[in-house]
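Practice problem: predict the structure.
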Amino acid sequence: MKTKLVTLLLVGLNAGLSVGLAQNKPASDEKVQKLYNQSAAEAKPAAPTEGAPAESTGDVLPIVSFEDAPLVDVIKTLARQANLNIVFDPRVTELGPDGKPKLPPVTIRLENVTAQNVLEAVLNNNSLRLEKDPKTKISRITMKGAEAEPLVTKVYQLKYTSPSNLVAIITPSFTSPRSKAIPDSRTSQLIVFATEKELLELDPLIDKLDTATKQVLIEARIYETTRKPSSLKGINWEGTFGAQSFAFGNNVDGGQGNRYSTDVSFVTNSAFGGWIEKITYGPNNPLHQPGLLADTARGLNPKAAFLDADGVRGVFSWFNKDDQTELLSTPRTVTLDNQAAVLNVSEAFPVFKVTSGGTQTGPTVDISYTNIGTILTVTPRISASDRVQLKVVPEVSALDGVDTQSVPTSGGGGTAQVSANRYSIRKIETQVLIPSGNTLVMGGLMSDNITQGRTKVPILGDLPGLGFAFRSSSKIRDKRNLILFVTPTIVTEDDFQVTPTDYLKRKPNPDKPDSDEGPFTNPLLDSAIPHDWSKPVY
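Answer:
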């Protein structure tokens, strides 16, 4: 009688599976469900036939086995054997883009269980739940909500990543509204309250995010070539007529005036001759000139109506001058990946901001400061294949003069002059992608200032042909060119030097060649506890 009951149960289970599969898919795509009993474990499964469900939901099945069976079909079969009327949530039976069920197939093998137990195990394993309605006696198979799962607390000890940054990344991955993450910046820990399933997904994510950030060595060489060619040509008579002091009758003694001569020093600085460096006035041998004398500081005697040789300061100039200098700066620094490095060699200069006040208060002046000099901002970003994406912003600034502005004074009775510095700025902003260790060259930050000057003797300097002897001209050019060389190099672990302690520990032990311990890593030397000499040293 017992054997007949087991056989009937086996036939009924297979028949239920056959009917459920036939309602959902063609026979060619269906997976075969196998239900074995313990006595027929070595035999083939029974052929699917129509049959009645088990007499009781509490009947123990010797063996229940499913191999790659569709989840919906398995649930239908088990619900039939458990005498349950079920309906499915549309999300459970939903098909994917490929036409196959979204939920995975079932492969299990259980022994000595009831159909109700197997159904509950299958539902829990696939995040499903059974909702029973006692009035209608119809159960609903639906998705299990995350709010129904208990929260688990886990503390992650971070090594490199900031906990605050990690919270913003992992929070969107929580499926339960109760789940949350709390950062502790003091201990560099992340406290997570989440379901067990969420934690299983967070573990590999945090392991990948909590890694050491790569570093980049930035080497910059800044060259500024300054060229100042100047040209001075002609004859300058300015010294002859300068500082004249006419007086009549001075130093006159008995109709004769004494005009002191001068001492003139010459300095030769070029192959073309010399020019006057200084003139010393003093009571040397007096020159006696009878009558009315116009004594001047430079020796002009109007009565004689000519220029004495010792009073002539006509400087003949015909030379070119060219200065070329190189200003070299080689800053070096190491920065983290995707973090800006600022190389600043500058001075702080005041900037005046004048605000006109009322008739009683007068203007107010606010002073702020700006950096004048060379500022290089480099932001590296490591890409694939050891390439570095660089954002480079070089800026070179300098004083370029002074501007003056008139502002009304208090009371409205006048104006005051306020001066402020004027600055020139040369700046480039670019982004490039270069291999690690290669050099980026930037140039073209040039400034060119030309200053011209002219002097001449009135009327004489305008004479045709002879006018050149009474005039001079000068031209000075200030040309600057800035050239920058920037070399990014990715820093690896091998680039760091080993500390002395680590080196001693890594040094091979001569007495134990196969050991990684060094001669200074034995308990006798590494511990302050008295050594037990009954034990070996190593």
